[in-house]
Write a structure and sequence with these properties.
This protein is an alpha/beta fold. Among the domains are: about 110 residues, Cyclin A, domain 1, CATH 1.10.472.90; about 100 residues, Beta Barrel (OB fold (Dihydrolipoamide Acetyltransferase, E2P)), CATH 2.40.50.100. The protein is built from 21 helices and 18 strands. The strands form 4 sheets. It has an 8-stranded parallel beta barrel with strand order 1-2-3-4-5-6-7-8, surrounded by 7 helices. Helix 5 links the parallel strand 3 and strand 4. Helix 5 crosses helix 20. The longest helix is centred in the middle third of the chain and has 17 residues. The chain is globular. It starts with a strand and ends with a strand. Bound molecules: cobalt (II) ion. The site of cobalt (II) ion has 5 residues, from loops.
């Protein structure tokens, strides 16, 4: 039986290697060539591409889809859809999900790979139903991870459930490149025994095992493998298309693809690749053996390093790496993919920085424990629940059941802002309200790509270069965004005099999002004083005593440093 190939060059490959920065114009140079190969599908949309296009590239994602569709007439186009999160980072209401899928099909999408970070199929239900309703192909996805509460039998049972929901094919999504050759063979065999649907293995070369695992998976009956053209392969990306095709040539698994044609296309892909040379970080190009030991995906480690740097505590990295597995276990073993990877990572950082575990918890950790992300794979102990959310009771329903329709408001806002409310613009706004307004008003400028550093400093004055303010060093979790925003000026020490001992202080470097009290307020120990944003997560600053607020030393938007006084309570 022939192995089929899904090529990811236009989506996951550049998302994993160069922070999702490939331009539409570059894609269009090779689109019609890619159509001649005979791929099972071209993954070219979704994941982080939508966000990256409107935020950094000043490109309309819908336009990219339409333009590629014009040039790719025979090969199915495929996208990555984060279940109820669509191509964003939170749950959207069902009306947005339905409309997004409808418009994606209308603009040319064929195959929707639908996943949920927690493998909670309730979060995948609306999108899979919409895909079927609009006549497209639903690929139900299992997020592969390893933990004491995950095993291949559980994943095979999930495949059965996805088939029962009407999925047309199944994908094993190994976002961190953790699947071993033996595990891949075993999982494919188990799924194939229970489900009679095409099966795809999607892995990353992060740990160096993906190509071998593809080989064992294909021999066990896996139908489709995800690869990328060699210029955009390996490292944190997929195995190379050409090598995979050559590996199976002349065997019963022969892909039937023309290696000469692939080689001619690769030359063009390589030219495109060189335009982004400065964006390739050497660290993402090589296997990361650390993943094999601590199982923490490379992108997540980059995030932890960035967070510790912001808090001037990079020397604590080893402690944080040891804390991550503990927090993951206590919080019910979520797969380490966005957004749960950020929740676990940030909580581990806070636990180490505070010297007392769960003394400070982020809003995101609270929401996760409350069940707002979905069902957690393993029960969290009552003790941890109490530490994180106090007496609040976690929800048990599908999180999106709590959401009201969101499209009517989106239409109203666009009308008010005098922005053309095309169906696509409405959905773009509904998903990314802040950035979409700027994009739709034409206020976004295309980010410039820095030239490659050379030994000698150039004689001429270099063109101004915009350093990416946001970089998904991302590797494994599809949507791992590291923001390298500077901390900005720390607010000068207030002129007012006060008794240090009576001050409530900032727990870490960050920005004051809101002050919850005013002068004269009587507050109790544990009352909310202010909310601080640090490491891109919101945390509450609570009063450590009862009394009357006598002074407020900060205002919304102020950058504060750790231990800086926020308010004085007499
Ligand atoms: Co991937």
């Amino acid at each position: 039986m022939k192995v089929k190939i899904t090529d990811t060059t236009l989506r996951d490959a550049h998302q994993s290697l160069i922070a999702t920065r490939m331009r539409t114009r570059d894609m269009l140079e090779i689109a019609s060539d890619l159509d001649k190969v005979g791929f099972y599908s071209l993954e070219m949309w979704g994941g982080a591409t939508f966000d990256a296009q409107i935020r950094f590239l000043n490109e309309d994602p819908w336009e990219r889809l339409r333009e590629i569709r014009k040039r790719v007439k025979n090969t199915p186009l495929q996208m990555l859809l984060r279940g109820q999160n669509l191509v964003g980072y939170r749950h959207y209401a069902d009306d947005v999900v339905d409309e997004f899928v409808r418009l994606s099909v209308k603009n040319g999408m064929d195959i929707f790979r639908v996943f949920d970070a927690l493998n909670d199929i309730r979060n995948m239900k609306s999108s899979i139903e919409a895909v079927k309703k609009y006549g497209a192909h639903a690929q139900g996805t299992i997020c592969y991870t390893t933990s004491p509460v995950h095993n291949n039998d559980i994943f095979a049972d999930m495949a059965v459930k996805l088939a029962e929901m009407g999925c047309d094919s199944i994908c094993i999504k190994d976002m961190a490149g953790l699947i071993t050759p033996h595990a891949a063979e075993d999982l494919v065999t188990k799924i194939k025994k229970k489900v009679d649907l095409p099966l795809d293995l999607h892995s990353h070369c992060t740990s160096g095992m993906a190509s071998i695992s593809y080989f064992t998976a294909a021999n066990a009956g896996c139908d489709i493998l995800d690869t990328a053209f060699s210029a955009f392969s390996e490292g944190t990306s997929q195995p190379p298309t050409e090598s995979m095709v050559a590996s199976f040539a002349g065997t019963p698994l022969d892909t039937g693809l023309d290696l000469d044609l692939l080689n001619r296309i690769e030359k063009k892909v390589n030219v495109i690749c060189n335009r982004y040379a400065s964006l390739f970080a050497p660290s993402v190009a090589k296997p990361d053996a650390g993943v094999l030991v601590h199982q923490i995906p490379g992108g997540m480690i980059s995030n932890l390093v960035s967070q510790l740097k912001q808090q001037n505590a990079l020397d604590k990295l080893d402690e944080v790496l040891a804390e991550v597995p503990k927090v993951r276990a206590e919080l019910g073993y979520p797969p380490l993919v966005t957004p749960s990877s950020q929740v676990i990572g940030t909580q581990a950082v806070l636990n180490v920085l505070y010297g007392e575990r769960y003394k400070q918890v982020t809003k995101e950790t609270k929401n996760y424990v409350m069940g707002y992300y979905g069902e957690i794979p393993h029960k969290i102990s009552d003790e941890i629940i109490r530490k994180v959310v106090g007496d609040a009771k976690p929800i048990t329903c599908r999180p999106a059941d709590l959401l009201q329709p969101e499209l009517p408001n989106a239409r109203e806002v666009l009308a008010k802002e005098n922005i053309h409310a095309s169906e696509e613009n409405v959905v773009t706004y509904a998903m990314y309200p802040e950035i979409a307004i700027k994009f739709l008003k034409g206020e976004i400028k295309e980010e410039q790509i820095a030239p490659v550093k050379t030994e000698k400093a150039p004689e001429t004055k270099p063109a101004p270069v915009v350093t990416p303010s946001e970089f998904s060093v991302e590797v494994d979790g599809e949507e791992y965004t590291v923001r390298v925003s500077p901390l900005g000026a720390i607010t000068a020490a207030p002129a007012a005099t006060f008794d240090e001992k009576k001050a409530i202080k900032a727990p870490m470097n960050g920005m004051i999002l809101s002050v919850a009290v005013k002068v004269g307020d009587t507050i109790k120990e544990g009352s909310l004083v202010a909310t601080i944003e640090a490491m891109k997560m919101a945390s509450e600053i609570l009063s450590d005593r009862s009394g009357v607020v006598s002074q407020i030393l900060v205002k919304n938007g102020d950058m504060v440093s750790s231990k800086q006084a926020i308010v004085v309570v007499e």
